[in-house]
Structures are given as structure tokens and as C-alpha cells.
Amino acid sequence: MRKKRIGWMILIVVFGALLGSAMGEVLGYILPQGVVREFFLRAAQFSLGPVVLNLVVFSITLGFSVKLNIIGVIGFVLAAYFLRWMQ
Q1: Cα(46)–Cα(51) distance, integer angstroms
Q2: In angstroms, rounded to a whole number, what is the distance separating the alpha carbons of residues 48 and 63?
Q3: Are the beta carbons of 31 and 23 closer than 8 angstroms?
Q4: What is the residue range of 33's domain?
Q5: CB contact at 8 A, 68 and 21
Q6: Rg, C-alpha atoms of the chain
Q7: How many domains does the chain have?
Q8: pLDDT more than 90, % of the chain
């Protein structure tokens, strides 16, 4: 039962961050040029890879990247608050 709750928590928090990041990108395109738009479009990007595994028959390229903006952080916090409220 505990393992299912942890998986559910991770899913909700990641979904909140994804939804918040998407909303930040849309809001950034709607707003006119200026400081507010730059604030919403500024993002931190973390990446790992790409790593190429070259085999004789085929090759595999693996990589992972996360881009998080301000609204994504707010979505992350709101999702965490929502989970705390549900318990």
C-alpha cells in the first residue's frame, strides 16, 4: 500500500510541474514583449546525455533533459500542496 502511495505522489507532483511549465510557455507567448514576458520565459534546463550505445546491428542514443520555468515551479508547489490536502 505504501509503495502505491509514493508512486501516486510522484505522478501528481511531476504532472503539476509539467502542467505548470506548459502554462508558463503559453502565457509567455500571449504576453507582449517586456520584463514580465522575459520573467515567464526564463527557464533552467538540466540535461544528462546523450549517450550513444553503438552495437553491431543497431545503435541506441539515450538522454534526459528537464526544462523548468517559474510557473512550472508554482505548479510543482501547488501539486505538493494538493497532495498534502488530500491526505
Answers
A1: 15
A2: 6
A3: no
A4: 2-86
A5: yes
A6: 18
A7: 1
A8: 1
Amino acid letter, 40: F
Closest CA to 69 of 9, 10, 23, 14: 23
45-73 per-position pLDDT tens digit:
888 878 888 888 889 999 988 887 888 88
The pTM score is 0.63
- Look at 1 and 77; give whichever has higher pLDDT: 77
Grid cell of 65 as nine digits: 533533459
Total residue length of the chain: 87
Judge contact between 21 and 75, C-beta under 8 A: yes
Closest C-alpha among 87, 85, 82, 73 to residue 12: 82
